[in-house]
Amino acid sequence: MLTCVYIARIVFHALYVLHSGEFHLGEICEWKYSGSAEIRDPARFLILPTGRVVVSTRSTLAIHGVLENRGNFDVRLQPPALFTIAGGVLINHGMIIMDSVPPSVAVFSGELANRGSVTVAEGNTVQFTDGKYTDIDQGYLEVGGGIVRVNDAECVTNLTSEKSTIKVTSGSLVLTSSDPSATVELSGGVLSAENLRETLVYGHIIMTGGALNLVGELKLVNFTIEGGNVSGPGSLVIENEWNWIGGDVSATPQGNIVVRGRLHLQSFSPKILGKHLILEGDSTWVDTQLNLVIQRRLTIASGVTLKVFVNTILFRGAEGVIENNGLVNITLLSGICGIHVNLHNFGDVLVDGGYMVIGEPMLNEGTLSLGNYSEMWIVNSKQSLAGANVQTKNGTVKVNDPE
C-alpha cells in the first residue's frame, strides 16, 4: 500500500499511473500536478479530511478505479485539459469545486457518489453522460454560474434524506433524463428540461428566481414557485401539489400545465398565467386577496371542485378564458369577485357573499347561483341571459348595459 502522511506537497509534472493498491493523501498534504494522472481499476486514491488535491493547468485526470475525497478537491484546468470519470467511481464526503479560469469541462461517464458538496463555478461545465450521479444523506450539487448537463445519465438524489438537493443559483442546468426522487432548488440562472423522446420525471422543483425552460414534457410530484418565470413551448404535469406564491408563467402558444392534485394560489401580487392551465384535482384557495392574469385559458375539468375563500379575487385578461366544467364555489367575506375574462360555464358556479362582477362576454350553459345576499353585476359588456340558469337565494342580479 502506498501512503502519504505528513507531507506538505507532492507535485507531478509528467504521467502518473496508480495501477493497484491504495494511495492515502492526508493531514496537510497537497497533491498538485500539471501532467497527466490515471487511477486504474482496482486502485484506490483516498484524500483524507485535511488533504487537498489541486488539478492544475494543462493536466488530465482519468479515474477508472476509485477516488474518495474527504477533504478538498479543486479542479482548475486549462483547456483542452479534461477531468474524466471513465467508468470509475468518485466518492465525495468533502468539497469538490470546479472553478477553472478560463472555464473548462469535466465529463463524468462513471459514478459520482456525493455525500458532501459539488460546486460548479461561473462558466465551467460538468456533464454527466451515460454515468450516474448520486446524492446521499445531505449531499448537494450547486450550480454557481456554471453549466451542468445531465445527458442520458442516471441522476439519483434524496435517497435517504430530503435535504439532498441540486441547487441552481446562476448559469444553467440542463436535464435530459429523469430522476423521480430529486429536489431542484432554482434561485437564479436557467433550468432547462429538454427531452422530446419521453416525459422527464422529477420530484420537487422549488423556484425563488431564475427561469424554468420547458422543452417536451416535464412531470413533477410537487412544484413550488415564489419567484422567477416558467417559459418554453413544453408542458408541465404536477401530480401532487403546486404552491404558486409568486412568479409568472410566460405566454406561449404551445404547451399546457396540468395539475392532477391541488393548486394552492397565494398572495395578491399579480400572477401571469400564459399557458393553458387544466385543473384535474380538487383545490382550495384561501387568502385575503388573489389576482390572476389569464392570457390563455384556465380549465376546471368535469367532476373537479374549486373552492375559494377570499375577501377579493380578480381574474383579468381580455383575451383569456375561464372554462368551468365542474363546481366553482366562491365565498367572499365582503369584497368582490371580478371576472374580467371570458367566462364559459358548463358546470356550476356558486357565489356566497359580496359581489360577483362580470366584465367580459359570458357563455353560460350551466348554473350560476347567488346566495347569502350576494349580488352579480354585469358591467361594460353585453350579455344575454335568455335560456340561462341563474338562481338566486336572497341574491340580486344587476345589469349595467353600456348602451
Describe the structure.
The protein has 403 residues and is mostly beta strands. The protein has no helices and 46 strands. The chain has a 32-stranded parallel beta sheet that branches. It starts with a strand and ends with a strand. The N terminus is likely disordered.
What structural keywords apply?
403 residues, mainly beta, 32-stranded parallel β-sheet, 8-stranded parallel β-sheet, disordered N terminus
Number of helices: 0
| First-to-last CA distance | 95 Å
Largest sheet: 32 strands, parallel
Helical residue percent band: under 10%
Structural class: mainly beta
Global morphology: elongated
Q: Return the average pLDDT rounded to an integer.
A: 79
Number of strands: 46
**Rg, Å, rounded:** 28 Å
Strand residue content: over 45%
Stretches with pLDDT under 50, minimum 5 residues? 1-8, 157-164
SSE topology sketch:
Blueprint: E1 2-4, E2 10-12, E3 16-18, E4 22-25, E5 30-33, E6 36-39, E7 44-47, E8 52-55, E9 60-63, E10 66-69, E11 72-75, E12 83-85, E13 89-92, E14 95-98, E15 105-108, E16 111-114, E17 117-121, E18 125-129, E19 132-135, E20 140-151, E21 154-156, E22 165-175, E23 179-186, E24 190-207, E25 211-225, E26 229-231, E27 235-244, E28 248-249, E29 256-259, E30 262-265, E31 271-273, E32 276-279, E33 283-286, E34 289-294, E35 297-300, E36 305-310, E37 312-324, E38 327-332, E39 336-345, E40 348-352, E41 355-358, E42 362-364, E43 367-371, E44 375-379, E45 389-393, E46 396-400
Parallel strand pairs: 1-4, 2-5, 3-6, 4-7, 5-8, 6-9, 7-10, 8-11, 9-12, 10-13, 11-14, 12-15, 13-16, 14-17, 15-18, 16-19, 17-20, 18-20, 19-21, 20-22, 22-23, 22-24, 23-24, 24-25, 25-26, 25-27, 26-28, 27-29, 27-30, 29-32, 31-34, 32-35, 33-36, 34-37, 35-37, 36-38, 37-39, 38-40, 39-41, 39-42, ...
